[in-house]
Amino acid sequence: MKLLQRSLVARIVASLLAISAMALISIVVTMAVAGGSRGDAAAINVAGSLRMNTYQIVAALQRYERIPSTEHQAAVHVLKRRFEERLESGELTGAIPVSEAHDLRRQYRLVLTRWHNDLAPEVNEAVDTRSVNIESLYRALDGLVSEIDQMVSQLEHNTEAKIRLLSALQILFLALTAVVVAIALYDIRHNLVAPLRQLMVLAGEAARHNFTVRTRLQGEDELALLGRTFDSMAEELGTSYADLEERVKRKTRELERSSQVMQVLHDGSRSLYGGGNDLCTSAAPMLRRVAELLDIGPIRLSLNDPHTDRQVPILATHSARRPDYCRDHDCHACLIAPRPLRLSDTEDGDCVLLPVSVGDEMLGTLEVWHPKEERLSDSVRRLLNALADQLATAVYLQQRIEEEQQVSLMHERTIIARELHDSLAQSLSYLKMQVARLERMQAKEAPREMQAAVFDELRTGLNSAYRQLRELLTTFRLKLEGPGLQTALLQTTDEFSERMGAPVELHYDVPPHLLNPNEEIHVLQIAREALSNIHKHAEAHWAAVTVKFQEARIVLRIEDDGVGLENDDSPPMHYGLIIMRDRAHTLGGELRLANRPAGGACVEVVFTPQTARLISRQPAIESTLHDQGN
């Protein structure tokens, strides 16, 4: 019973079995009643024929009385025997109930008694005496016929009773079947259809992301268990979906915040990388904005002092006072904060210490304070690492710029010193020797003509020294005022074109930033010295300066259409050509002098720039590093 109460399938199966059982019982009972009524019609026919048989016996007796013959006597005996056979036949007795208390059984016994006690003796006496007592025979006949009619009537009533019983049983089983079907339909409707409809409603609402609907099914059957499981699943799905929505919203906020931070880092990189040595004005607004977006702070930046190996505070957001290391009291970048914080204000927070480094070189540290109860997410940590890397790149670039400026300054000083030594210093040394020679002549009271020659040499030397000084001033002024070598060469060609009174062409085809300042100075000085020699000695009506980059080498060519050279060698003790050759050797190239086929001379210098040499060595360096790494 408990199993039937708990199992919907068992209840449905039981209902189907009940309906099937009632249908089977109805069929069996119907077959039994029908089987019991099978001989009733034959019995009624036999009982009805008994009446006809009695009249036939009477008619045969009358014929025998009129004509007493053996044939008529035999006919009487045949009819009598036929009556007795029919009265005791199985077709009739089979329809008679066995119970002696049944009215039909008693009526059958009464018919037998009438036949054997009344009619049969009359028939036998009439056959034996050949005389028929019609009145007595008719009385016996009427009594027998009356009893037979009563028996037939009872047989008919018995058959009708069976038919009524069969109809009643059919109606009863039909009613029972209808009741069982109604109960089964009610059970299916309330325990199967309604729960299934509720489950479908829950499934449809769940498909629309509505997890608040519940079936609330009661009971212990399968659908109730399934409904409670669906309710539990819907509750869990609702909780999970709400949690996922909250996580998506949180992730969306983090992504939006990360996007804003990345935009701040991108916008701040322009001022950060172009801010020179002033990290306060370039980095402080960016750090303050990052702290505001990420809800953290303060943020402190400290750099390593390479001389004392200590951390030097450089920058702090939300600073309450000007730091002791401040070098510009007109700057308020670290003081502009809506909520200034002191060190004591961060005691309830945690600090994340990030390295500010480039490769293996440790440049400093970045302190990031945040509330202790709020843990920094992985995305925030990645953003802070990107911030530290960006600051490290900016600091590294600024340090390299400072070093490059110092190196450039020292290099420029070296160039100026070498130029002074190669030109003006040698001229002054020559003048000094001439002055010493003149002093010795005066001490020996040498003739005035000999001293006059020395004076001429001193005058020539002074003019040359003055000219060299002007050349140097012009060269450095061109270098400082012009944006590059091309501009300096253009000004030089214009200057010598005016001095010579002849056109001086310039053909320049060199990629930008290929030559370093030292190489540009040497190229410019060689070109000026060659043009100066053309102006002094060539008697030219045309000159050209060509600078081009060809096959990873710089080719400098100065041509003219003047008188040319006696041979391809430089004149002995020609100071200008010696200096040009020394400059070419300094550049790592060679100087060639030759006459042009069309007339005039050609000075050519070919060398490999420092940049090209570094590029050519790069694959070898990379191969070496790769081998070391392996």
Helix vs. strand class:
alpha+beta
- Please tell me the overall pLDDT: 76
The total of beta strands comes to: 9
Percentage of residues assigned to helices: 55-70%
How far is the N terminus from the C terminus? 81 Å
The number of helical elements comes to 15
Largest sheet: 5 strands, mixed
Low-confidence stretches: 1-5, 618-622, 624-630
Topology record:
Elements: H1 2-6, H2 8-36, H3 40-66, H4 70-87, H5 90-93, H6 103-129, H7 134-207, H8 222-273, H9 279-294, E1 299-304, E2 311-316, E3 349-358, E4 361-371, H10 378-443, H11 448-481, H12 485-500, E5 504-509, H13 517-538, E6 543-550, E7 553-560, H14 575-586, E8 590-595, E9 601-607, H15 610-629
Parallel strand pairs: 5-6
Antiparallel strand pairs: 1-2, 1-4, 3-4, 6-7, 7-9, 8-9
Provide structural commentary:
With 630 residues, the chain is α+β, with helices and mostly antiparallel strands. Helices cover 67% and strands 11% of the residues. The chain has 15 helices and nine strands. The chain has helices spanning 2-6, 8-36, 40-66, 70-87, 90-93, 103-129, 134-207, 222-273, 279-294, 378-443, 448-481, 485-500, 517-538, 575-586, 610-629, and strands at residues 299-304, 311-316, 349-358, 361-371, 504-509, 543-550, 553-560, 590-595, 601-607. The strands form two sheets. Strands 5-6-7-9-8 form a five-stranded mixed β-sheet. It has a four-stranded antiparallel β-sheet with strand order 2-1-4-3. Helix 3 runs antiparallel to helix 4 (70-87) and helix 7 (134-207) packs parallel to helix 8 (222-273). The longest helix has 74 residues, at 134-207. Residues 1-5, 618-622 and 624-630 have low confidence and may be disordered. This is Sensor protein. Its EC number is 2.7.13.3. It is a multi-pass membrane protein. The chain crosses the membrane at residues 12-34.
